């Protein structure tokens, strides 16, 4: 048990007196800390930090009766500060993730725009009749509709679609990922 004589020795830096304080309050402070943080290791860390703080401030403590209040209040404040700090860290991590997500979105958008630009340029460079067939097909028209609209036979429409794929495959050989898309768009 902690006595007034122990308090005087503690203030003078006596380690045995500090051990007496430690033994008196440690377990109770640990239980108190666990109610806040619900983590054994963290509770132990908080209590140990508070006890170190008590040792460092021993000369400023006026009365033995204030030690208990000091310890419990310090543990409570340490726990609350820990949670505030965690909230700041969590908010910062969310912000970083959001920034990365936005950056990825814009990169993907730029890639899509560049891909679309390459595709449109390659289609614009097709021979006129092949380009018309390709454009109508990409807009969802079936071979019979394209044949009727351009006054062609369906076999000629198929020929122009195959011609478009052959030419576009050559022009877009560095963008191989576009070829399945083209085949799908041209309904091949």
From TrEMBL:
SMART domains: HTH_LUXR (SM00421). Keywords: Sigma factor, Transcription, Transcription regulation. One of its GO terms (biological process) is DNA-templated transcription initiation. The keyword Transcription applies. Residues 123-180 form the HTH luxR-type domain. One of its GO terms (molecular function) is sigma factor activity. The keyword Transcription regulation applies. Belongs to the sigma-70 factor family. ECF subfamily. This is RNA polymerase sigma-70 factor. It comes from Ancylomarina euxinus. The lineage of its organism: Bacteria, Pseudomonadati, Bacteroidota, Bacteroidia, Marinilabiliales.
């Amino acid at each position: 048990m902690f006595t007034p004589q122990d308090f005087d020795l503690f203030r003078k830096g006596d380690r045995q007196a500090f051990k007496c304080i430690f033994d008196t309050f440690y377990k109770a402070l640990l239980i108190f800390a666990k109610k806040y943080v619900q983590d054994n290791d963290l509770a132990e860390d908080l209590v140990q930090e508070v006890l170190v703080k008590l040792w460092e401030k021993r000369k400023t403590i006026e009365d033995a009766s204030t030690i208990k209040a000091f310890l419990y209040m310090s543990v409570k404040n340490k726990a609350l500060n820990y949670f505030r700090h965690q909230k700041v860290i969590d908010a910062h991590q969310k912000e970083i993730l959001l920034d990365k997500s936005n950056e990825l979105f814009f990169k993907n958008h730029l890639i899509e725009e560049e891909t679309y630009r390459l595709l449109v340029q390659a289609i614009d460079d097709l021979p006129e009749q092949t380009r018309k067939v390709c454009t109508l097909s990409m807009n969802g028209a079936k071979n019979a509709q394209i044949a009727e609209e351009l006054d062609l036979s369906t076999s000629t429409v198929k020929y122009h679609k195959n011609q478009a794929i052959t030419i576009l495959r050559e022009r877009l050989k560095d963008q191989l990922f576009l070829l399945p898309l083209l085949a799908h768009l041209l309904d091949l």
